[in-house]
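stuck on this one:
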Amino acid sequence: MIIKDSERLSYSLMTEEDADLLFKLDQDPEVMRYINGGNVSSMAYIIDVYLPRLKSFTNQKMGWGLWKVTIKENREFIGWILVRPMEFFSESQEFDNLELGWRFMQSSWSKGYATEAALAISAKLVRQQSINKLSAIAVEDNHASIAIMKKLGLSYIKTTLHKDPLGDMQVVYYQQRVVRAE
């Protein structure tokens, strides 16, 4: 799958070659605040944990993975958009329900980049006939991410315990059913 440039941004799937960018993004405690309480990632963590996880769910044909987001004007890396089936790291993966997530450099916050990127990527994803839902999760205090979810047209479904091999977390769960014109 290829995602065409949006007004200000370009997109490409991230690979092991992007380890330095993933590391750089995770060095800001404010970026990591709602991920793990503000702990920055070591390069060893990126290589030993993060990259194998990324490789496990990346599927270029389906559009799954971390979509690198860069500013078109200067090619600056500002963050990524996550796409993978909901519950990917469980025994009940939801292949018709794609999870969207995002992580952006603090210098790019409050400029609409995450919303622009998530809209561009989700617009391409919903063209797949196998996709019936788009979902996103966030800790309840992450008001900025919840605002993006609402801008994407997702609605609150529930507050729940999200289970993940790296640690369970209480989250709000937002979702949108994909409606196709007949």
In short: The longest strand covers residues 94-104. The chain is about 30% helix and 30% strand. The mean pLDDT is 95. The beta strands are 9-13, 65-71, 77-86, 94-104, 133-138, 155-162, 169-177.
